[in-house]
Amino acid sequence: MTLTQQRKLKTLLVGLASWAIALLLFFPILWMFLTSFKTELQAISVPPQFLFEPTLENFGIVQERSDYLKHAWNSVVTSFGSTILALIIAIPAAYSMAFFPGKKTKDILLWMLSTKMLPAVGVLVPIYILARDNGLLDTKLGLVIIFTLMNLPIIVWMLFSYFKDLPKEILEAARMDGASPWGEVTKVVLPLSVGGIASTGLLSIVLCWNEAFWSLNLTASEAAPLTAMIASYSSPEGLFWAKLSAASTLACAPIVVFGWFCQKQLVQGLTFGAVK
Amino acid sequence: MKRSITRLLMAPSVLLLLAWMIVPLSMTIYFSTINYNLLYPGRNNFVGWLNFEFFVTDPGFWIAVSNTLILLISVLVITVVLGVALSALIDKPFHGRNIVRVLLISPFFIMPTVNALIWKNMMMNPVYGIFAWISNSLGLEPIDWLSDYPLMSVIIMVSWQWLPFAILVFVTALQSQDTEQKEAAQMDGATGWHIFRYLTIPHLARPIAVVVMIETIFLLAVFAEIYVSTGGGPGYDSTNLAYLIYNQALLQFDVGVASAGGLFAVVLANIVAFFLIRAVGKNLTV
């Protein structure tokens, strides 16, 4: 074998191995997707059916059985609401830390990060009692507040790193032209960092959408987002795999697609910029 | 700009996070020292260390501690070892690399409750699941995963979720590896294994440390997967600390003991957080 042939063979083998492993890891998702188009009988057939006549009836039943749209709406409101709220709170903080850093800025950033390390279960009881006493148990507002606080450190951190990378010269030029601090922010900083803000928001939506601990513990039938609604399918009242799959597919599809688009931000956000 | 204005801009974030940290935490500390059961309100006398004693002598405590550690270490080993191997594999060019990458990271975006239900039902069910079908096809007895190997089942679910995260971080890190260095090593006759061992692994040392620390924070608190799939059982076989505390608080309504357990979890996480913050802080330029 010549060297080029050898190299080609190697590329082929690497490709085959990668594809095989990727398909293996992706299989549960694919299987969930396929099962959502089966009848309940097909869903539990042995051996498993890979070819079948697809049906859409599960999606309708899911809506009837567990009021899917209400829970989807809860997910939308809590994840978008808390993301917007957190961005409004975080942008001024990130702006002032990035452009006017003081001696304590680094300490404040690290301290913010440390609040993210507090395990949720350590404050489960007080949060539950506070929510109960303030009428926030099983409300969307309660979850929005929790999600906002939960993601605030990541959001401040990510915005800070975006703002810090903006060219300082542009800001100086704007200041020379007599821009007020307010004009500087609205006319220069925000337009330049739209991309950064958008991907920060996207990451926050993904994290809120998939949040399960607080959703399961603080909501019941009224405000339960999709994560908690899906959990109701674990009850042993029967095998509803096709319906479970239909509900899960609807719940996960938008976020998986979102996730594909914000891979890079995800790494930066979740590792607090330690890996670029 | 004046210091006072910058302080004003930071104030909402700082004050909110301060409240988010201090209020519940001090409540947890307070509850952990009193007798407080939601079923018997009004009997909130001070009991000192009694709650801690109760939590630590709970029959599930040591099982939960060991389960928490087994879960943590197994998932860390699986995700880091496979993560490094797979990211090194797909770092090389081949057809459809982008699609492979998308497929590999997708499980990370599946919500934990869905993750647990897919595995519990469609994969691990001893009669209708895919695993049972594979076992039967090979002429083996199907395994009842959730009853016979509950902790391992949870480990599989959680690893499936976090392996993509490790891959994602390592792939990102590998892109910044010096290709010239690799080529030079190849010219000098280094084998693929040598390059991997002496160039790639050292390059990944830092990302590996970061992945280990971040996963540790999340893995110490695994909850939804257990809640949905095994419910901590059978017995205490798949109960971890987070689930034990939840069990004390919202199933047995014993706020005092649950708070004592919560503090225990906080201390455990803080030990890890200390190292993570030091590692991240070193990299932070203001």
Automatic annotation (TrEMBL), chain A:
It comes from the Bacteria. Residues 72-262 form the ABC transmembrane type-1 domain. Keywords: Cell membrane, Membrane, Transmembrane, Transmembrane helix, Transport. It is found in: Cell membrane. The keyword Electron transport does not apply. One of its GO terms (biological process) is transmembrane transport. It comes from Maribrevibacterium harenarium. It holds the Pfam family BPD_transp_1. InterPro entries: BP-dep_ABC_trans_perm (IPR050901), MetI-like (IPR000515), MetI-like_sf (IPR035906). It is a multi-pass membrane protein. This is Carbohydrate ABC transporter permease.
Automatic annotation (TrEMBL), chain B:
CDD domains: TM_PBP2 (cd06261). Gene3D superfamilies: MetI-like. Keywords: Cell membrane, Membrane, Transmembrane, Transmembrane helix, Transport. The chain crosses the membrane at residues 12-31, 61-90, 102-119, 151-174, 207-229, 249-277. Its main location: membrane. GO terms for cellular component: plasma membrane. One of its GO terms (biological process) is transmembrane transport. Residues 65-276 form the ABC transmembrane type-1 domain. InterPro entries: MetI-like, MetI-like_sf. It is found in: Cell membrane. It comes from the Bacteria. Pfam families: BPD_transp_1 (PF00528). The keyword Magnesium does not apply. PROSITE patterns: ABC_TM1 (PS50928). It is a multi-pass membrane protein. PANTHER family: BLR7065 PROTEIN, INTEGRAL MEMBRANE SUGAR TRANSPORT PROTEIN. Belongs to the binding-protein-dependent transport system permease family. This is Sugar ABC transporter permease. It comes from Maribrevibacterium harenarium.
